[in-house]
Amino acid sequence: MGGYRKTLIGIVTLAATIVPALPAHAWYPDVPSSYWAYGSIKYVTVTHKWMAYGPTYFQPEAYVLRKHFARWLYNEFVPPPSPSPTASPSAEPTVAPTASPDATASPDPSVSPSPTPAPPPLPTFSDFSSSDPYYRYVSAVVQLGWMGAPGGKFRPTEAVRKVELDIALVYALGLRQAASGLNRLGTADGYVFKKPAGFGAMAIAEEMRLHFNHPTAQDKRELRPYSPVRRADAAYAMHQAGAAKDSWRIWSMQRYQSITLPAMNAARKAAVEFAFRWVGYPYIYGGEWYAPTPSGYCCGAQAYGGFDCSGFTWWVLKAPSGSWNNTAIRKYDGWSLPQRTSYDMARAAIGSRRITSTSSLLPMDIVLFQSELSSTSYTAIDHAGMYIGSGWMIHSSGGRAGVTISWMGDGWWKDHFKVGRRIM
């Protein structure tokens, strides 16, 4: 660790002199005060002065290059080197301790001192020169494991993808173990669910609210896992992550480190696994399809892929009906679920299919929530998700900007649980 720390301190010291800080100016004319990410852009350029594009413009709609993102990560999350300790003029002199009578007068020659480990070598890249001004930042974040360079290629001038941004920020926040816990997620009888790359980090990023849920008119801005990230969206995510450092939100993510779901039958297992495939997809109001809907779609055209809460429940559970059919994608038939809204789903929870206690829920029961607890109308039920077991649910949340996995064993979700519906 000592050698590695010295290497990192050297990187910190040298990198600070390589890329100039943001030039002083009034403000960017391409970022008016009414711009949706104005506050976040101000945070990363005025408060921290490390995310400038140039002396005149911020270029919020330009995509973030990987080498630029490496620098932003470095400046936000790599701690500065500690100052060398110096003796205080008023400090008392250090007095050597008196040797005890039986102390050995000289070191035991049979005991060899432990050698100081050499610091790890700086990484090299086949597509990125060590003389590049950004090399120090890139090498640091690759060494830390926040960004990857498979096959020795860093791809410095390619755009950062959402899944890459999520992994980097979650790891930089110290939540690697939480993400790894989700990546290992399985059942008590030993089954480990198949999941997409970056699954754990994307779920944690949504729970940490690192992404912005754009209004319906701006659905084209919403990020899917492999979408390139615009500078404005990156500024927002960096702002959120920076604000979360050392907060209670970091502590609350630790429960993701070790989750075991109950053993379940093949039908429930298939549905849970299919639902996991869409973690990290965006919240789209009225959305119920993973991509723009095909020509002749039955239920209203959808221009951009993504899901709202009840639409995601449809996507995972609804059996083919009329011209609605996604079995070519999910490979199982599903169950009768004609209701599309959360309150209609709740209204249909009757008899033995109505679950009133969270302790009675089974995997893939629909869970329905009500923000305004004083209302007795079904129309007040305003959120739907799917229970996956052990106190957890999967859902598409507007407040989290997409599909994620949330704990409902206590707190807001437990307090606002209204009813469950069993459809299997």
Descriptive report:
Helix 6 (176-183) packs across helix 7 (199-207). The chain folds into two domains: 2-80 and 122-160, no CATH class; 178-421, endopeptidase domain like (from Nostoc punctiforme) (endopeptidase fold (from Nostoc punctiforme)). The chain has helices at residues 2-15, 38-47, 66-77, 135-143, 162-172, 176-183, 199-207, 231-244, 248-252, 266-276, 309-317, 327-330, 342-347, 411-415, and strands spanning 186-187, 260-261, 288-289, 306-307, 354-355, 366-370, 381-389, 392-397, 402-407, 417-421. The relative contact order is 0.11. The protein has 424 residues and is an alpha+beta fold. Strand 8 (392-397) and strand 9 (402-407) form a beta hairpin.
Comma- or semicolon-separated keywords:
424 residues; alpha+beta; endopeptidase fold (from Nostoc punctiforme); six-stranded antiparallel sheet; two-stranded parallel ribbon; 14 helices; globular; disordered N terminus
Outline the secondary-structure elements.
Elements: H1 2-15, H2 38-47, H3 66-77, H4 135-143, H5 162-172, H6 176-183, E1 186-187, H7 199-207, H8 231-244, H9 248-252, E2 260-261, H10 266-276, E3 288-289, E4 306-307, H11 309-317, H12 327-330, H13 342-347, E5 354-355, E6 366-370, E7 381-389, E8 392-397, E9 402-407, H14 411-415, E10 417-421
Parallel strand pairs: 1-2
Antiparallel strand pairs: 3-4, 5-10, 6-7, 6-10, 7-8, 8-9
